[in-house]
Every structure is written in structure tokens, then in C-alpha cells.
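Q: How would the C-alpha cells look for this protein?
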Amino acid sequence: MIDAVYLADIRRAFTNYRTLAERALEQITDEHLWTAIDSEANSIAVIMQHVAGNLRSRWDEAWRITLGSLDALTPDDLSRTIHIRGEGFAVVEALNRSITHTAYHVGQIVFLAKHFAGPGWRSLSIPKGRSADHTVGRYKQGIVPAR
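A: Here is the predicted structure in C-alpha cell form.
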């Protein structure tokens, strides 16, 4: 049971990170895609190439294959061993490494896109200064218990 829950959650997490990156990219120009903020930084395009290459090396192609591969996994697959750069990992370990690596780089993409979009940035979650509004709404919906 928990294995099936885990597989659904890891797929949801990959899908959410993909959506965050796509929504951030919608807000910048093509020029900003290739702009590095300093000589030691990577551009969004380079980070995207890195993430795609990393996902591809684990799953043969980027997002489509990653999500398709996740859909094909069964709970019994989670304890199987796979090899990454010659080192053995249980599938569940490889999934956790991959999602944390992806999340790290999607965070970079969102940060840079927000920087380049400037005041025109549309929040991808709760807008700055609006947390209280969100919490009140969740109370009214019964999602967060009243204190």
C-alpha cells in the first residue's frame, strides 16, 4: 500500500516541479533564457539542459519519459537495484535522488525567471504579503483547523 502511495507522490512531485519551471519560463524573454547573472552563474537555458540531461541519463528522455517511466513502475520495482555511474541504488533511492536534484534546479530556474521578470512577475504560489489571506481561505474551507 505505502509503495503505491509513494509512486503516486513522486509522480505528483515531478509534475509539480515541471509545472513550476514552465510557469516561470512563460514570464521571461528568450534573451533572458540565455543570460547569466554573473560570470560564475549558469543561465536558465544551461540549467534546463543540465536537468534534461540528468533526467535523460536516468530515464532515456526528459520529462515525457520520466513521467512515463514513473507510470510504468510497480510497487515491487521500488526495491530493485539499478546502477547510476556504476553505483547500485534501490529504485526508491534513485527516485529520491532524482527528485531532489530536479527540485534544486527548478528552484534556480524560478529564482532567475523572477529576477528577469521583475515587477511583472506573477507569483507561482501565494503572492508576497498574502499569506494571511491564504490561511483565512483555508480556514473557511475547513482545510486548516481553527485555533
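The domain at 2-141 is CATH 1.20.120.450 (Four Helix Bundle (Hemerythrin (Met), subunit A)).

The CA atoms of residues 17 and 103 lie 6 Å apart.

Upvote if useful.
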